[in-house]
Amino acid sequence: MEELVKYIVKSLVKDEDAVEVSMEETETEVTIFVKVNPDDMGKIIGKGGKIASSIRTIVKSMLAKSRKKVFVKFGE
Fold it and tell me: For the whole model, what pTM was predicted?
């Protein structure tokens, strides 16, 4: 899952080396943390949050069978 998110994010940003993706998993939820260069944050969020929402949708659909809550958090 982390590799998929990293691939998507790297394809959107200029500074690919600054992309960091990590994942924390508990019994009831999965949280994916995405860190990028502050200059690239707007590209990840997108106009009106549409790109961030799309990334969240992809991750949720990939983890739908696990029946866990899924969160994707973006930061610098």
Answer: 0.88
| pLDDT tens-digit series, residues 16-72 | 999 999 999 999 999 999 999 999 999 999 999 999 999 999 999 998 898 899 999
Full DSSP string of 32-65 = EEEE--GGGHHHHH-GGGHHHHHHHHHHHHHTGG
Q: Work out how many domains the chain is built from and give that number.
A: 1
Paired tokens of 23: 């994942």
Assign 3-state DSSP to the chain and report helix, strand, coil percentages, each to 5. Answer: 50, 25, 20
CATH number assigned to the domain comprising residue 44 = 3.30.300.20
